[in-house]
Amino acid sequence: MNNDLFARHRQVLPDWLALYYDEPLEITHGEGRHVWDADGNRYLDFFGGILTTMTAHALPEVTKAVSEQAGRIIHSSTLYLNRPMVELAERVAHLSGIPDARVFFTTSGTEANDTALLLATTYRRTNTILAMRNSYHGRSFSAVGITGNKGWSPTSLSPLQTLYVHGGVRTRGPYAELNDRDFIAACVDDLRDLLGHTRPPAALIAEPIQGVGGFTSPPDGLYAAFRKVLQEQGILWIADEVQTGWGRTGEHFWGWQAHGQSGPPDIVTFAKGIGNGMSIGGVIARSEIMNCLDSNSISTFGGTQITMAAGLANLAYLLDHDLQGNARRVGGLLIERLRAVSAQLPGVREVRGRGLMIGVELVKPGTDEADPKSASAVLEAAREAGLLVGKGGGHNTSALRIAPPLSLTVAEAEEGAAILEQALRSAY
What we know:
By secondary structure, the protein is α/β, with parallel strands linked by helices. The chain contains 13 helices and 15 strands. The chain has a seven-stranded mixed β-sheet, sandwiched between helices. The protein has a four-stranded mixed β-sheet with strand order 1-2-3-13. Strands 11-12-15-14 form a four-stranded antiparallel β-sheet, covered by helices on one side. A hairpin with a 2-residue loop joins strand 1 and strand 2. The protein is globular and about 55 Å long. The protein starts with a helix and ends with a helix.
């Protein structure tokens, strides 16, 4: 059956639509932190549909909210007042840390970043954008244009003039050997030098922890130091929280808070986990930025009643059950367990991340070169043993991406770590 579905997939869907595994997996249902495939095999899910199933599969509170809303009305568009949308916007604005915040809902992180770029370039009246090397911001034409990761950027054409900044990757690049303080100082000096060679940009867009790039991040405080420089010229700071938001990093509710010494970002984008699988994205911005557009606009499917009902229920569950605290506690245990295992394996260069956002960078033993072949082999071996993980990486890097639902238990973390240990040992 799976082979037939794979053949049909290849017949009607694009060749560039990436699939995991030599024999692609059809997931039919899930519960808690587990999913099942079409053959009845059960897997511990350490990737959550790319960091999207944030609380749990088939969470009863979300399922109930969606079902009840579907029985009333599913959709009306933003041309009409929408109580669930207003209620979720109120909660998100309050949680954002941005003064006088306004919220606009979209259907995805890509669309959220697209909207943020529209706002920033309109507000600043320039199409120049600063982005981070090794970054990823989505698959639209404008988002691809600011993506600093060649593997996910199929064209050099763009409506934007993009300049790439150092700092998103701590342990590679020209400043890798510096200590944290000197690393930040060198990146700030590079930013100042770059700004001296160009007209003032609209904004810097940055992921606090780079997702597709392999869960890499700078030292805490880098973006706060950048913001001081940016503010001298009125340049905006956009924090792409599509993967880092809602407490996933454990230590903070938003990833930008590790860099909050100079205040909150001007714009925050979000998506993925807030909907727990429903299509929700959005932008939070100060009112004068959000309101800078002088033409009408709508979102046909952004903020529709059924997705907002899911988001409200999911966010309430996350806060009521302190899943951020659980991500900090269980994630900390999982990181230490993986570091202990990896210390014995010559192919593991680094275990990094925080909370339940963990990267395991793999290299060819005895070198500092990426090992994508082994990363794929570990992915396959983990699947065979009942564990689903992701992978990523940018320029000459290969990493496993581990991001389970934030309700992960200690026992499940131990189970997953043991499976991943055996998968790594089979490759190295």
